[in-house]
Design a protein that fits this description.
- It is a single chain.
- The protein is of the alpha+beta class and 137 residues long.
- The chain is 30% helix and 34% strand.
- The chain has four helices and seven strands, in the order βαβββαβαββα.
- It has helices spanning 10-24, 77-92, 106-111, 130-133; strands at residues 2-7, 37-44, 47-57, 60-68, 97-100, 115-118, 121-124.
- It has a seven-stranded mixed beta sheet, with helices on both faces.
- β3 and β4 form a beta hairpin.
- It is globular and about 35 Å long.
- The two termini are 26 Å apart.
- Residues 132-137 have low confidence and may be disordered.
């Protein structure tokens, strides 16, 4: 079973750092100028398989990176995390989710309906995913 959760405890953050190091080769990402950081951990049968860091500031969500273990890529785990972030964005009344996209991840972000704003900055309207991830009200 796949399960995603936003974590803030020491154990959860340790799992995220371990995954980040395995996937990207480093533990920490650049959070300069960002506030209200949320860490999303994706688990498969209790085993960490994906992670991302989301920052919330001035009614704007920014994804730093989305990482999935190499042996679990192309199984829609990144899509699952984007939908969880879109759900959070809708809950927070955020108009767009932003990310600075690298050449390596461009195809993924385009497949998730992110659109280019300028240069490497892309954005997603979370409302475009509402039918798949909205909360019951």
């Amino acid at each position: 079973m796949i399960f995603g959760q936003f974590v803030s405890d020491e154990e959860g953050l340790s799992k995220i750092e371990g995954l980040r190091e395995e996937i990207f080769g480093y533990k920490n990402c650049d959070l300069t100028g960002l506030s209200e950081i949320k860490y999303l951990l994706l688990l498969e049968d209790g085993i960490p398989v994906g992670e991302t860091v989301v920052a919330y500031k001035d009614l704007r969500l920014t994804i730093t990176e989305i990482g999935v273990k190499e042996e679990r890529r192309f199984e829609h785990y990144g899509d699952f995390m984007v939908r969880m972030i879109a759900d959070l964005a809708i809950y927070l009344h955020v108009r767009y989710i932003y990310s600075h996209v690298t050449e390596d991840s461009l195809d993924f972000f385009l497949s998730e309906h992110f659109e280019e704003v300028e240069g490497d900055l892309y954005r997603l309207d979370p409302e475009s995913l509402r039918c798949a991830c909205s909360r019951n009200k």
